Amino acid sequence: MNSKRRAHEHLRSFTRRGVFAPFVAPFLWSRSRFVPPVAPQNAAIIPTRFSTPQALLTPADEYFVRNHFDVPKLPASSALRVSGLVHSPFAISPADLGHLPAHSVTVTTECAGNAVGGVSTADWEGVPLAVLLKRAGLDSKVKFIRLVGADRGNLESEISIPFARSIPLEKALHPDTIVAFRMNGAAISTEHGYPMRAIVPGWYGMDSVKWLVGIEALDHADTGYFMTHVYIATRLQTVVGSDQWPVRQMRVKSLVIDPRDGASVAPGLVTIRGVAWAGENRIAQVELTTDGGKSWTPVILSNDIRPYTWVLWSYPWEARARGVFTLSVRATDDRGNVQPPARDNLRIDNYELNWYHTIHCEVR
Questions:
Q1: Of all residues in the chain, what percent carry a pLDDT higher than 90?
Q2: Which of 38, 100, 141, 316 has its CA 20 to 30 A from that of 229?
């Protein structure tokens, strides 16, 4: 069996495990062959429950969980260290961070490998990352900021490494990129990053590093494992080779969350509900089809439309005929980006999964 076929067999074995297989099945095209990175054995994957489809914010106990390693148990006094190419490195405790001027932002966060349940929305309160970088005094050569978590483990060797991601300096200095210490008005819970975590609005969730213990200023692109072996989009070229780019900004996407796939409803008026988001952009339109794509109808958008945050939508469906119906939803953002009907068949990674969401509903 050649290397390309082996990789596809490996991918199928992950996919059979269910909707969250994309979390742990990314693939790279390297040296003319597929190379599957090792998935952390202790990775936690818990989907959003969507128990309240009319609610803008996701309760902490329903917020999706995606961890690469075991959850670290950090004391309230654990310090966050700012270092690297800075003039005045320092460490700050959660208590001292809480005394700085706070900034709040409502953010929809999505796992880069999410199909359906790996997305949630919360109000986050914290201190702009730019405030801490200014205090440290950045060297003029700084180009990237590395965010280091306390969670760590072994991957391809016996050496333990922490989870860490780097973001470009421009994004790090944006006032909405924060070091958060409160979630939905309460202290961040342990599974969501207590006592401090990064929030990088509009970018996929892996950049909002939890259990934040380190901020490092770099003058070069980060070559760490989580920047080079995973979270890399890979698209085969039609002739030979592939194009690769880092997964960062969230793509426009929408979901039907009520009714659920496979649900049965009574004939008559059925309110279909869902959510749509566009990362750093705004949702411009959401459309629904109840006839398998023959016709599309705009839905009702029910809350303020703004960057970073999903919009709730609803549609009053007159379900007169009995039978099984195929419902699909698609969203368009204010930059003209539209959800595609299907996955690009030349993509060989499992990130940015934003094609139409489709459910089947029986009227009986």
A1: 80
A2: 141
Domain with CATH 3.90.420.10 in the chain: 37-230
- Region(s) of the chain under CATH 2.60.40.650: 253-363
pLDDT bin (cut points 50, 70, 90) of residue 43 is low
- Percentage helix, strand, coil for the chain under 3-state DSSP, each rounded to 5: 10, 40, 50
CA distances from 108 to 103, 176, 252, 307 (A): 16, 13, 12, 9
Q: How many CB atoms lie within 10 A of CB 222?
A: 20
Q: Provide the pLDDT for residue 159.
A: 87
The Cα–Cα gap between 253 and 221 comes to 29
Domain 253-363 indexed as CATH 1.10.10.1100: no
- Mean pLDDT, to the nearest integer, of 252-275? 96
From residue 153, how far is each of 28, 163, 205, 225, 353 by CA, in Å?
21, 8, 19, 12, 27
How is domain 37-230 classified at the CATH fold level? Sulfite Oxidase; Chain A, domain 2 (3.90.420)
The residue whose two tokens read 């398998």 is 292
Nearest Cα neighbor of 303 from 57, 95, 76, 41 is 57
Q: Residue 19 — very low, low, confident or very high, per pLDDT cuts 50/70/90? A: very low
CA distance 320 to 227: 52
Q: What are the φ and ψ backbone dihedral angles of 21, each rounded to 5 degrees?
A: -55, -35
| Rounded Cα distance, 72 and 42, in Å | 12
Nearest partner of 178 among 236, 101, 117, 232, judged by Cα: 101
